[in-house]
Queue: 4 jobs
Job 1
Amino acid sequence: MKNVRAKKHLGQHFLNDEQIAFDITDLLSEGTKNLVEIGPGMGVLTQFLVKKDFTTEVVEIDTESVFYLRLNYPKLSVHEGDFLQLQLKEKYPYPFSLIGNFPYNISSQILFKAFENRDQIPEVIGMFQKEVAERIVCKKGKKRGILSVFLQAFYDIEYCFTVNEDVFTPPPKVKSGVIKLVRNNRKELTVDEQKFKRVVKTGYNQRRKTLRNALKPFTLINESEIEHLLTLRAEQLSVDDFIKLTNHVR
């Protein structure tokens, strides 16, 4: 029980349904060569990953879980530490897929890190709070947010299935959702990426306002060409709409 309490403190809930664990690992694309699992705990996903025909490494912050994994999977490369603190290009100098029953309290930060390292991470399969999973997948509407736009610019995202509370120890208070992100064909944005991120953040930080009002801190050029977009709110815009908007920001 001590280990479960420790993991709960870290924001993680142990999945105890092996069929669901198998179903999550089965979402990995054919041709996967290198894989990094975040927060494996007692290895409910790991047990299936190590049987597959690719290299698996895991990152685990909980000392007791690290001891368990090293004891039961002696050939597995286990990094004890915080994934968010890793310099990924130094630690893993090759492309890798990312998988995990992600700790709820850092799941968005994990995705931001994937976004920043997108050319190194062609695929992400993760379990999140259902609300977070739905937000990441959402293409328009109130559930959509800043991270949705950033990720959808470079990944095709699919909501795979919902997981009920009773298959975790300790059970969370909410349902979970499993999503899959696969790198799309967009190599880079056709606008300055930092400017694009500022425009998206500014629009969403005042999401109740129309973009004409939300973007008042910026100087807009050729406004007539984006008149329709300026009458909308941030949640109504697609990735391409935001790129077009950014093109008109000086």
Note: The domain at 193-247 is CATH 1.10.8.100 (Helicase, Ruva Protein; domain 3).
Job 2
Amino acid sequence: MGQLEEALVAFEGAHKHNPKLGWVLTRIAVTYSNLGRIKDARNALKPLIKYYAGKGVEVVNLRTQMYLRPFKDKEVEKCFADGLIKAGLPGEPDGYYKIYQENKLTGAEIRDLFFDQTVSGFEIISGKQWWIKRDKDGKATYRGPKGYVKGEVTDVEEISDSGKSWVERNRIYNQWANLFGGLEDCFPIYNNPDGTPEKKDEYVGVTVYGFVPFSIAD
């Protein structure tokens, strides 16, 4: 955190070498912000925001960007998030999921909370609501958006699918007849202290393709 000038030289060098490295722009913007160069920070981030806005994809926001850059040090995490906000990234200060080890659910907790139960959330990209109903043995049904293609929002149709769920190694596993090509999908789940039933984000699954916030359905 204390070698900002050196970091800026490295990031700007990387961007000059390969301007297509969009992720470098967030680093440059955060470094400028923490150096007090807010105008430069905003100018650094503008191309990335404009690029995704043109695609109609709301992935350049604080919550999604913080998913892509997990931190173990909470102070560094907050410093990075504050830098992005100062640089003009959409989002609210402190408006990102705190994925900390102490909030991770055990396998027993996952089974007790989410089996013989219906959960629901809002799909990150489309904003459409989805539902998963599981019985006590893990038989599951899905209803919700089909998704998006190549990072661009499409005319999102609602689909239904069936499958099964089970718990191993403190992770929930899902396998659907059609979703994800019928491949197994697994992830840990964390309690979200800032979540609410209205936002349907009292729990957060952390997957290789993004956050999966959800709550137990009414």
Note: Confidence is low (pLDDT under 50) at residues 148-154.
Job 3
Amino acid sequence: MINQPKFLTLLGTFLGISMGQFAFAQSDELYTRDSTYNFVETPGNTQLLRIKKGYLLGDGITFISGKGNFNLSPSLQTLYSISSLNKNLSDPNAMFAINRARLNVFSNLFDNKISLNARINFATNFTSVTTGNRTFNTTLQEANIEYRPNRTHVFNFGLRADYVDGRETRIEGESLGFIDRSIMSDAFDAIFDFGIRYKGTYRLGGKHLLKPYLSITTGESRSALQQNFGGLKYGVRIDYLPFDKFSRGGEFYMDDLYREEKPKLVIGVVYSFNDGATSAKGTNGGRWLYGDAQQNLLLPTYSKFGADYMFKYNGFYSIGGFVITKATVPDNIAGEFRLNGTFNTAGYNSQTPEQIKNTVLSRLNLGRGFNVQAGYLLPSNWAFGGRFSALKEDNVTATFANNDRAYTFVTTKYLSAHALKIQFELGYSQLRQSLKTATQNGTYYSQIQFTIQL
């Protein structure tokens, strides 16, 4: 048992060390980017090139030839946190973790017509409850090939973060303005999936841009690397940019690092339909398989609709959105397949059709989510932000909203953009009303994360 004064003293020490590190790093001289390679190709030979002479953190190691380039870029995020479930902040728990430890391999070939991307994450904290063939690789995150016939159209084949999740998932973990994504993203976004995708960019006149995204995927996430258990997932996203594109890829990270000189905005709507869902939200495909009396596979459909936005101007940014999910259950379900492959009818033969329907729905993330956040970057490269997120479960659904409100505040010191930064976060995650007690109403936490990308 650690009493409140001791906990506050520990927290104060934690903050003091953090701010001391910030102050020390702020005076460091940063590298200056130099994009020149001075490449000369000898006729008949392909030569490898040295690292850029003006190397900047995050550039990775790039080899260049006359046919294209090959880049290796490792990144590491270490996390330290203190949390308490009690109102008086007693009995805190400390955690030390590797949040992300990634190696990204990227290559452009044939005048950027073809590119390949593969990424592995050595730090995985997801434990699959499946066994045997109904499991998946938690280390491989992306492995895909892109074909660009021109600058307007792109076709993608393979495993990657999906276009048809929320806007937060369009942003790499190393480029988030907060330490992690919101509870809305955690509840409803599958993130990775295997399939075929298209994205385009169309100028509607003046500075107006329209970006459509289409995808046909397995809906099984990384389970599909072994087997697609259900049907296919069909998705579409339409993004509208009324003030032209963001500077330096600013649409795909949070804080306004390059201080947009003119307002920039993207508004998007997204819809997906999974014709055969086998897990709560599409991350662990094959977890739940149902059948009729003849053991023919019968699966529910799962649909998701959402809208989101991002705005940036002169150091200020805001991002937000909402999502709604629904499902339908087929008739004649008579049992489910166990993880060992045998068919289990126990319990189903004594239930009414309505009870069976509710059993299936109780294993899907069904309901609504909302998230809004904003932040401001000072000229000194200190950033401050706040976020509010909320979840609402349907009456019959998997339990994904025990904590149905989250309030988060973050301070970030950017030392070399997102390639080197330190983030300190304070938050409160509120328990839903039915779970509150006289001593507990949620989780209070503070955490610090160090990010470096080479």
Note: Confidence is low (pLDDT under 50) at residues 1-46.
Job 4
Amino acid sequence: MKQNFVVIGLGRFGSSVARTLLEKGHEVLAIEKDEALVSSYSQGFTHLVQADTTDMNVLKSVGVRNCDVAVVAIGSDIQASIMTTLNLKELGIDYIVAKAINSMHGKVLEKIGADRVVYPEMEMGERIANSLVSKSLLDYIELTPEVSIREILVERGFGEKSLSELGLRGRFHVTIVLIKRNDEISITPGGDACIKAGDVLFVIGRNGDLDRFEQQVSG
């Protein structure tokens, strides 16, 4: 369903969010305080405004109340981040996502009404660290602090045994949701599917269980 978004702050994180939303066919109002950034993005966004979003009257004048979702992607100016989030909450925006630079900042954003707080630098750091310590881990998505989906390269297969014979759910308590073999992709593979060296798996489970499974298939 098409939605109207406002993205406030066009640093690396904010501009990436805005562009992705545009590519998916949504309406995006992009707001940035820095004149130089606004000039550099003048050809990239249909609705681009230079404005100070800590000013409630400014937010009203640019039509923020017409948006369904707000993304507060302001960088290191914590005061501006908090004031902007407060203003959006007061305007009655349905859903507010706010970027935090540390845990204290995040707690304040949650207290004043942000529906979701994200830590892009921290999450990217965790992703890089995980990739450094595990050569078989290609990528991962954290669903909760305890549960993830991991993209894992199989370096050591299980011979000709099928998933039913391997009993991975019973042994590792993980679920394989996709197998990619060369150009072929098997989504929610059946019990007769096999895992071979060179396969790429998308596996969901608790992090400790995923660690054990990853060790089993790594070389």
Note: The mean pLDDT is 87.
